[in-house]
Amino acid sequence: MESKTLFENIWDRHVIAEREGGQSLVYIDRHLCHDGSFNAFGQLREHGRDVRRPSQTFATPDHYTPTRSADLRDVPDARAHEISTAIDKNCADFGVTLFPWGDDRQGIAHVVGPEQGITVPGITLCCGDSHTSTHGALGCISFGIGASEVAHVMATQAIWQRRPKTMRITVDGKLGFGVSGKDVIIAIIRQISAAGGTGYAIEYAGSAIRGLSMEGRLTLCNMTIEAGSRIGMVAPDDVTLDYVEGRPYAPKGVAWEKAVSFWRSLPTDEEAVFDTEHAVDGDAIAPMVTWGNSPQWAAPVTDTIPDPASEFDVEKRSEMESTLDYMDLKPGTPISEIKVDKVFIGSCTNARIEDLRSAAAVAKGRRAVVSTLISPGSGLVKKQAEAEGLDKIFTDAGMEWRLPGCSMCVGMNGDLLEPGERSASTSNRNFRGRQGQGSRTHLVSPSMAAAAAISGTFTDVRKLMED
Ligand code: SF4
């Protein structure tokens, strides 16, 4: 029997047809929609079409939802309000399961899917959002699609895609204290570059990856798109099964047993060959901070801002100069001396319970010296955090405890930085203006974000926790 990778094991089972030019028609098991999917519903109406498989389509509002109050009118303008409420009528009209605003199950689509057991190993999953790569952490193929493709998936439950090449990134070793999945993925992107994964489906492997919790794996796969790849995956194992079992939409009883035996057959065969392989030293990864307008411009918190003059490649040098100019940073500045104006702990990258626990461990008994906003990834994460008293730790530290949503990751709901402000943010994108016009975003892990909130500068969380 032919040896296959995890990706091939799933992809090959989902191809309905192939056509010249390398395009495959791929069956989609699950489709996640959010408030931004209103255009696609509009297209269905325009053409008199139905949602082909409503039982496999799920929706939750996230991008435009206010986090400050439970009043949907608390969004920046009438258009945002219209978008954030349209999802209710769209889902009712088309028979799509909705986790509505105010329901504990509402949250960021990429938090809700795994949390509800909608995301399981071995499936194909789509969503009209590029960070759909997140779900691959459970050992499935998941990728983001454009607005017209969303309508196509709604109408047909399938999509034409070019089969990507395969890449394995092996991270061996043991992650040190204070080093998380976020640091691993930033270190990977720094090593392979923000375009390093373009055209590939990436499988993360190695002892450091196996040692990550499901939350850590979700963070890792979430930022796969920041390495240029639309698909990131981790092979299903006991960590995956423990996470999935008992979730509302996960298989139960005999169906569970059958599913588990299938899922255990999915991991990459020993003899399987990848188109490309990379190795990353897990022992050497330190808490990371990005300093430029791409996640590849990153360094350990113990480093200094690099000097473009030492860059040999002219194009890269000019890009570094321009990014440092925008970020208002000087070469040679110790990262630990960079002052932050605001801290954001949230987003589909780092707003799960484990993320909030790690931030709370740092904030406990301390006071934030800069404005800090914390938005849990879903209503259920919020509830769990409150049951554990994490909200109290945050508010006692002078931090703002908000409602679930995308919030300051993208600011569509009005949660933004002021022009020129610098953030320590647990989100996934740091390009110019991502958190508001003129905003300067530094990506970090939740514990590093909390450390920056307490110190006012980027601070090595390992040292802070020793004190
Ligand atoms: S949290 Fe940010 S990256 Fe994630 S879905 Fe929302 S806007 Fe996109």
Structure description:
It is a single chain. This protein is of the alpha/beta class and 467 residues long. α6 packs parallel to α8. The mean pLDDT is 96. It is built from 16 helices and 19 strands. 33% of the residues lie in helices and 17% in strands. The relative contact order is 0.13. α2 links the parallel β3 and β4. The strands form 5 sheets. Strands 5-4-3-6-7 form a 5-stranded parallel β-sheet, with helices on one face. A 5-stranded parallel β-sheet has the order 17-16-15-18-19. It is globular. It folds into 2 domains: 271 residues, Aconitase, domain 3, CATH 3.30.499.10; 126 residues, 2-Layer Sandwich (Aconitase, domain 3). Iron/sulfur cluster binds next to loops.
Q: Care to give the gist of this entry?
A:
The chain has 467 residues and is an alpha/beta fold.
Give the topology.
Blueprint: H1 6-14, E1 15-19, E2 23-27, E3 30-33, H2 38-46, E4 57-59, H3 78-94, E5 97-98, H4 109-116, E6 124-127, E7 141-144, H5 147-156, E8 158-162, E9 165-172, H6 181-192, E10 200-205, H7 207-210, H8 214-222, E11 231-234, H9 238-244, H10 253-263, E12 276-281, E13 288-290, E14 298-300, H11 314-327, E15 342-345, H12 353-363, E16 371-374, H13 379-387, H14 390-396, E17 400-401, E18 422-425, E19 440-443, H15 446-455, H16 461-466
Parallel strand pairs: 3-4, 3-6, 4-5, 6-7, 9-10, 9-12, 10-11, 15-16, 15-18, 16-17, 18-19
Antiparallel strand pairs: 1-2, 2-8, 13-14
Iron/sulfur cluster binds at residues 62-63, 108, 110, 129, 131, 347-348, 406, 409-410, 427-428.
